[in-house]
Structure prediction request, 128 residues.
Amino acid sequence: MIHIALCTGVILAYVIVGDLQTMEFLNIPKVGTTLFVFLVIPVGAIFLGNLLYKQQLRSVDKNLTLNDKTGGYQTASVIRWALIEGTAFFILFIKRELLVIGLFLILYLIFLRPSESRMKRGFEAFGR
Prediction:
């Protein structure tokens, strides 16, 4: 439910505020020094979100059952989702020329939907 609410909120903001009907957002500006800094922010958010996600999964007690590990997985996921969502909102309100990057962040956020199999894989790969 949290994931659905985050995705829905950022999608609605992009539809309402982003003015996506004009297709003007597909015109990518020339990359200069200033724009390059704004391109680094989404990459950094994804990297930092994944790093914090892995650290949070590693901190969960390995002796707990999978059901008991759900809280740790949820916390790790919310941290990662919040960084991606925050960056998408940052792009929407601060650097509107990069709306297409924000849309890719939204797609990535949707892709990170939680499931039992993802939780199992996460604990096997990064956790305990």
Observations:
- The helical segments are 2-17, 33-58, 70-94, 99-111, 116-125.
- The chain has a mean pLDDT of 85.
- The CA atoms of residues 41 and 49 lie 12 Å apart.
